[in-house]
Amino acid sequence: MKIVRTAFIAGLAAAWVVGALVAQETRITVRVVANDAKIIGTGVGGARVIIRNAATGEVLAAGVQEGGTGDTRAIMVEPRARGASIFKRERAAHFTAAIQIDTPTVVEVVGEGPLGYEFATQRAVKSVLLVPGQHITGDGIVLNLHGFIVELLEPTVATRGDVRVRTRIRMLCGCPFTPGGLWDADRLTVTARVYAGGELVREAPLRYAGEPNIFEGTIWLADLPNGARLVVLAWDTERVNFGRSQAKPLR
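User: That's the sequence. What structure does it adopt?
Assistant: Structure tokens below.
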């Protein structure tokens, strides 16, 4: 009887050891990418990445994606074969974290950028189940951000009269617009709008000005009340990208 009891206790002890949870390092690569364009890199301030436990909200890792925008031909021109690496190139921007988990864990991966242009910053979230010790490498988890960087160059403060409006528009990665180019200026609709009292009261088109990224036009502001707002909007609806910027209100 004593021998049987001893064997039973030993079996329980062995089962306990087998069932013990041990945290394992799990590496995750994340890439934050501009929709219809390239990786959001250091040139536009990079992108913030946060990885948190989806159930508890605990932040497991956080940092800034830094590096280059990647290989233009691989990302924008060449056909994409299933399983091929598109974004993993030397010096291409990414964020890599090593987190410790002891059980399969659902995480939320958050990407925000471009950090160099707060008014244009967009955000994307993706959830994924991580398995301890199973590293995510290569292109990694890709987060796609929609939008444009729209910079209102002139005027920065709305003034009265026949006002010249001049704006610079780029993809979120900083990629340039030119007529017929890889990012085609002719695809964009760009407009200056004036809002007063919560209503749209005036609108004028802005057209490509002969140099990369620059669009301009004029709009009449002489007869508008104080507080009227001049807003520049740009969009490519088919490719789901939109952007805006605005001057300080009319005084």
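Residues 188 and 236 are 5 Å apart (CA to CA).
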